[in-house]
Amino acid sequence: RASRVVIAAGGADYINRLTMSLCSDQLADENTLPEALAGVDIVVVPVLLGANYKVMDTTSAWRNAAPGEKDRNFESTRADEVIAFPEGD
User: pTM value?
Assistant: First the structure.
């Protein structure tokens, strides 16, 4: 069976929040969302949009995301199993 693809496009704040949702513990328990997505064959493609909706360097934005005070145990590679970054121009 082929994977389902979710394209998640937005500005820098959106990509940062998406990164935290998938790569940190935000509630009282451990974040299991990446494992749940993998279990149903979903791949998330984050797309960072800049001025005039130009696609920017999403990988760098993802890897350098800044966790907030509620984002525990942040690791930017935590959801790599279900993330596919856009490549090229």
Answer: 0.88
17: Cα within 13 Å, side-chain hemisphere:
7
Provide the token pair at 53. 């909706």
CA proximity to 56, closest of 19, 21, 11:
11
Within 10 angstroms of residue 73's Cβ, the number of other Cβ atoms is: 12
Q: Where are the alpha helices (DSSP H) in the chain?
A: 12-23, 33-39, 58-63
Buried b or exposed e, range 16-38, using 16+ CB within 10 angstroms: bebbbbbbbbbeeeebeebeebe
Q: Which residues of the chain have pLDDT under 50?
A: none
